[in-house]
Amino acid sequence: MKNSILHRSASRFSADHGWLKSAQTFSFHGNYDPDRIQFGALRVLNDDTVNGGKGFGRHPHDNMEIISIPLEGTLEHQDSMGNVAVIRPGEIQAMSAGTGIYHTEFNKNENEPVTFLQIWLYPDKLNVVPRYDQQSYSHGDRHNRFLQILSPEPDDEGVWINQNAWFHLGDFDEGTAAEYDLKVAGNGLYIFVISGEAEVNGQMLNTRDGYGIWPESRVSFRAVTDTSLLIMEVPEKW
């Protein structure tokens, strides 16, 4: 389709470190493709599974908006701002790295893996004071509708970040149709199928497929099977 880019699940980069298995939609660390760096302000979309009791040791970030969405298991977070938290399915975590932070992410459970989406967006402001945000939501609130879980406004629904972006989650029964209207004209929309099969503006998508489009205003969805979707509206030019 014109003004679109399709990333099939099988086309993602992969990394296997034993304790960590990562499927990466965009270039990341040693996996590099100059034609697959980002989608607008969306720089990283990693689908990570960490073995029980393992995790990412203390490491730095700066000038990036970092979002974690657990899908299975529990993720423990600690950072140089003094935050200690556990994130579970039904929660979202956001950090503005700004002038610089150090943090660790570990599987809280010794006996079961944790799977989570690690997402990075370029910020619209550099060198801000680092901050941490975490919120929970009800799975029932996203049944057959898109639930906003992230925005640029502190007083809006979900966590907030320093970027003109909106994230929504939706769990749709087979055959259910839905629509999404862009918040800002000219933004792009990146759809990630967490599970199931969906039709998006006529394009068929399967589990873990990603689909970036630059619509004029409205996008139409139809769940072909019971389907869970993450949609990310981000600035196109970055």
Please, could you describe this protein's structure?
The structure is a single chain. The protein is mainly beta and 238 residues long. It contains no helices and 22 strands. It folds into 2 domains: 12-126, Jelly Rolls (Sandwich); 141-234, Jelly Rolls. A 7-stranded mixed sheet has the order 1-20-17-22-15-13-14, with no helix packed on it. The chain has a 7-stranded antiparallel sheet with strand order 2-3-4-11-6-9-12, with no helix packed on it. The two termini are 22 Å apart. Its cofactor is Fe cation. InterPro entries: Pirin, Pirin_N_dom, Quercetinase_C, RmlC-like_jellyroll, RmlC_Cupin_sf.
User: What general form does the structure show?
Assistant: globular
Q: Which fold name fills CATH's third level, the topology of the largest domain? A: Jelly Rolls
Estimate the mean pLDDT confidence: 96
Can you identify the CATH superfamily of the largest domain?
Jelly Rolls
Widest sheet: strand order? 1-20-17-22-15-13-14
Q: Report the helical percentage.
A: under 10%
Q: How would a crystallographer describe the biggest sheet?
A: 7 strands, mixed
Proportion of beta-strand residues? over 45%
From the N-terminal CA to the C-terminal CA, the straight-line distance is 22 Å
The run of helices and strands is: EEEEEEEEEEEEEEEEEEEEEE
CATH class of the largest domain: Mainly Beta
What is the rounded Rg?
17 Å
Number of strands: 22
The domain tally reads 2
Per CATH, the architecture of the largest domain is Sandwich
What's the total helix number? 0
